Amino acid sequence: MGRTASTNTDTDSSGWGRVRLITILTAGLLAALAFAVGLGFAAHYALRSTGQAEPANGPIGQNAGSLAPLVTVDPADKVAAALGQAHRDQLAAAPMLAATPEDSRQGTPAATPGPFVQVPPATRTGPAQVPTGFTHTPAGAVGQLAAIEATVLQGMSIPQTNQVHQQWTLPGATNIEHWPLTGNVQAFLATARQGQTKDPTVSVTTVPVAGQVKGTDGPDWVLACVLLDVRAVIKTDSRMAYGYCERMQWASGADGGRWMIAPGSSPATAPSTWPGTDLAIAAGWRTWTGPGEGTD
Hints:
With 296 residues, this protein is α+β, with helices and mostly antiparallel strands.
């Protein structure tokens, strides 16, 4: 009950950092923990590489027993008119609830279920073998981001990551070297002592467990966030939650259009909280459901 929620304010809160990474590895953890270590380190890496300043303190500062959910957009709400680039940059930079590495690996289930986000299904396979065909709605943007993220993380391949980035980012988006997902793949492969692509004996699976819409700017732009349940198997099984946000923009085309990663710097780090906990609800996460599965 004494757990204090806060927004990301320092290097260690948004990522594990090089010192902690080395300390943990030299302490003798199995290679199966490489994914948990790698993703935490990558979050810190992404912020430093882009030169993005750490967000200032935000409005959350309560005890865990009385955490108020972060105010985010209900994906079902009517979308307001677009306000422009300044509004988009403000949404992207707004800090989110800070989470520790421990928060991503375990947590006590909340006594009361949190809100839901009903995510439409993909209807076809798009470029770079990424599922697509999600609806032109905020929830559709959440679904598309999850598909992009899952394709990259499950593949754990530098060439594939480059292909996905090339096919799924609009001009002006974060470049491949500074893309957070690239940092995740690099950190995993390095820590697990892999090459450019993970070994066939290494397994990484992802399941979307929660999502949120941090904000919108007209019908064609969404700040979407996804919380994945990630499982990596090298020698033994390792599991963690991983939160990730991107600016998403609708791009019209002959195929009917699709959501793509939009121009602008990477958004503030999303909280990686164990799904279904009070902390996850306070962080703004809505339990992931399919059509007809769950109500608030």
